[in-house]
Amino acid sequence: MTKQAVHAAPSPVGGVLTNTATMVCGFLVLVMLAVLVVRFFGGLGAVTNLNDGYPWGIWVVVDVVIGSAFACGGFSVAMLVYIFNKGEYHPLIRPALLASLFGYTLAGVGVIFDLGRWWNFWHIFWPGYANPTSVMFEVAVCISAYIVVMWLEFSPVFFEKLGMKDAKKKLNRVLFFLVALGTVLPMMHQSSLGTLIVVMGVQINPLWQTQVIPLLFLLSAVIIGYGVVLFEACVTSSAYRRSIELHLLEPMAKIMLGVLSVFLVVRFGDLLIRGALRHAFSLNFTAFAFWVEIACFVAPLWIIGSEAARRMPARLFLSGVAIMLGGIFMRLNAFLIGYQTGDGFNYFPAFPELMVTVGMFALEVLGYIIITRRFPVLPREEATH
Amino acid sequence: MATRRDFLKGVLASSAAATAISVSVPVAARETRSRPPEALGLLYDANLCVGCKACVAACKTANENPPEFSTEDRLWDTPLDTSGYTFNIIKMYRNGTMEQKDAEINGYAFMKTSCMHCADPSCVSACPVSAMTKNPVTGVVGYDASICIGCRYCVAACPFGIPKYQYDQPAGKIGKCELCRHRHKDGKYSACAEVCPTGATLFGRTEDLLVEAKRRLALKPGEPAKFPRGHLRAANLKSAPNGIQWKDEADQSYETPAGKYIQHVYGEKEYGGTQVLKLSGVPFVKVGMPDLPPEAAASHSETIQTMLYGGLALPLAALGALTYVAKRNVVADDSDENADNAKGGHHD
Known about the structure:
The structure holds two protein chains of two kinds.
Chain A: H1 20-42, H2 58-70, H3 73-83, H4 93-114, H5 135-162, H6 165-195, H7 213-239, H8 246-274, H9 285-303, H10 307-310, H11 313-337, H12 351-374
Helix pairs in contact in A: 1-12, 2-4, 2-11, 2-12, 3-4, 3-6, 3-7, 4-5, 4-12, 5-6, 6-7, 7-8, 7-11, 8-9, 9-11
Chain B: H1 2-24, E1 40-45, H2 54-62, E2 89-94, E3 100-101, E4 107-113, H3 122-126, E5 132-134, E6 141-143, H4 153-157, E7 164-165, E8 174-175, H5 191-195, E9 201-205, H6 206-217, E10 224-227, E11 231-232, E12 254-257, E13 276-279, H7 297-309, H8 313-329, H9 337-342
Parallel strand pairs in B: 1-13, 3-4, 9-11
Antiparallel strand pairs in B: 1-9, 2-4, 5-6, 7-8, 10-12
Helix pairs in contact in B: 1-8
């Protein structure tokens, strides 16, 4: 049980905050703010290509649906450490949780940009207005609750920095409950993000329109969580010139492959039972996009199939990227590419619309850099100091 | 070894909890709902429609919507589709030489596009804030902009592409046909049916309209038959059970040769039935009406929601099981536990 104690304690990376990366991110955030001014004064049509055939664009599908799935690292690793009692993965928790915190908080804020009547947003939590049979209601309530839980889970980092030992001790006493909540809530809304498309009925291609879509979204969110941790671990160690935690990443990648195999069995089992697989052999872009999605999910089984391969950082990185791409395609396919409401409608994001999504991503990177440099998140690096 | 044993215990505890819950929760599928008995609706008969678009103009006036232009001169209201400002439109089907009305080949035909007022509407199920509601008596699907958050889930959910959003407004609203429910208190019915010169759009109780639709399907093509106009109502029916006092109206029925119909009342069974019914001489998919199953998508979606979240049983049980496991596993999440250890403060 004390295995975690042998790991290096987290500490700030240090260094300057003004460098090329932070300046570029800052500039992109400013561009986003400018676009948002136009959006709030001119309406959604002033900066987006949204239309009645595609009422949801990248602000919903990328910023919220994909963004929150990418933010599942914290949930996936916390589940491994605390629920399955794999204490050895403890050093991965804080960085993963930080990325999740940003991903979710910004997804929550990003929703406001997309809401046509945003000043009524509180209605979704208000008895009398709230409609519990709406999948959107479930998603909104769970994501909001999860954001609060994650800030609490992460608060020891700030307590440590500010020397608030008592507060930290008090929080540690209820941490087990926060951990349990922080596992149940994402399970609920990551599955419901998939259920969102069920009410769209025949408008969604049968390759994605299925009663097991909540399970598929949940499993894929867990896999994406591990994929993002692989990706982040590789990027962070290269950007901060730190050694890579291969002894942790190798077995975690193996667990990821296990969940991935279950996912693929459910995915194809469902397609075969419903007789929907024939749609994958149509000669159109939707079928092509389906195979790209599947290829991305299958690739890691081949890239890091052997233990030797899982010890190669480049391969771990590639697998992380493949999983993230698979997650992107799965969600774009289910919500946009496989969505057909009638002839005559098409959608591709407008440039200012894209700049908001880019700006949100830049804000996440900026926040991650600032917090890891100033707050104790990443494990202390003994070799270089 | 302790870790492995605990890992297995964790797995066992979670799966046992999950199994117990899935067994104890009754799998209550949410059945597709049917129309309320006194549901109000429209019957649109494409064979009677002459494409005059009086209904499009009357709808604009009744709902105080601005004109929309699609021509250079911008003289007339010329919307090409329903929108946040156009709730009803007549579209045209054209094929080959367009010689014969209501023929699939070398013919032309009209089709009305407006809200179908589903028995089990996807938009109402989707709406997270109850801005889109279905009246339990009249079955009219109504919208309240003062409640709406503008998420446009209703727009995405509707298989008929009906709720539309005003993208050009900073405070855009959803626009859709509400069967002129705001006119009911004055004893007036849907403006589109009121102005229709041929009775192609007929207003009434959906039950009555369905009987009328089936009567027409049984007519012999070419034989003269009687067709009502305006408001189809049982003799001397003045009030509806929900308190609507309809205004008196003279019988406007007329005689004309019956057209040739596809033997299908669109809306009788689609998605559990709709309150707006349609008849056509051209197959419905060709005139833009989607081929829909008898079960509403809302029933699938709400079955999943009820199974997973009914009474919050499953989430609470999962939370309980996970709290138990986490309580055992979360010991000291102290990053300065080395220091704590030194002080002898580490507890395990």
